[in-house]
TrEMBL record:
<dbReference type="Pfam" id="PF01370">
    <property type="entry name" value="Epimerase"/>
</dbReference>
<dbReference type="InterPro" id="IPR001509">
    <property type="entry name" value="Epimerase_deHydtase"/>
</dbReference>
<dbReference type="InterPro" id="IPR036291">
    <property type="entry name" value="NAD(P)-bd_dom_sf"/>
</dbReference>
<dbReference type="InterPro" id="IPR050177">
    <property type="entry name" value="Lipid_A_modif_metabolic_enz"/>
</dbReference>
<protein>
    <submittedName>
        <fullName>NAD-dependent epimerase/dehydratase family protein</fullName>
    </submittedName>
</protein>
Amino acid sequence: MRVVVTGAHGKVGRAAVKALAAAGHEVTGVDVTRPVFERHEPDEPGYKQAELTDAGQAFAVVHGADAVVHAAAIPDPTANAPHVVFHNNLMATFNMIEAAVRCGVSRFVNISSETVPGYFFADRPFLPDYAPVDEEHPARPQDPYALSKHFGEQLMDAAVRRSDIACISLRPSWVQHEGNYERNIGPQVRDASVIGAGLWSYTDVYDLADAIVLATESDLPGHEVFYIAAPDNAGGHDFAAVLREHYGDRIALRPLDRKDSSGISCAKAHRLLGWTPKRTWRDYLDDEGHTLPA
């Protein structure tokens, strides 16, 4: 397929471009950053620079595509003004799905977020109702990032109601790669009292890229939402024990697939997408949370 990947110079987009190209697709990467004007390698994916909050530029990059993977976004609400985060993320998503519908694109993969339930960046903090969290958990977003991702999923719902496009929204947990495991996950490996907002959950970027390929190639109709997270938690802790230690009975504990379970359930992705993660923090870090020697 001819696949357009937005946010192609970001952490997720870069891995998705490589995975989709390796799977045999004709990939065009899109980002707001400038291209490099050098001779291209024969198998190098194409690249287009575009500001996707501009509808005309979104239409220009989507035209002729069979599928779109929309990974472009400001990735959290903390480093930009709230209106900038909300406007950028929501308008880019609106323009891309609008262009995809109008241009007859058959498949749209929307990179949403684990923050949609709302408890990550809440001004009035609250806890999830239960763990592991799954797609049925209520969405109660407060911050501009989670709101933009929640509304993005609703844009997918609207698109499938008014057209023949099929959409998949992926909600990845905290995305890690070989360059940031020690910085981000290392503290949680060393000390279970260091709690990530996702209840010690994380995702390897290359496992996420595999999920993106599966979603792009999927023939699922309508709009489906999937969490994407590693099956284990950062540190390999006894999940039930640390949950009770830190939260008592304020978070209902649901049945676990394994003792060192993640705080997020990906059972739906396993069942409907056929996604099986292959990587763990132990591939990168030792038991003290330090990078393994090369």
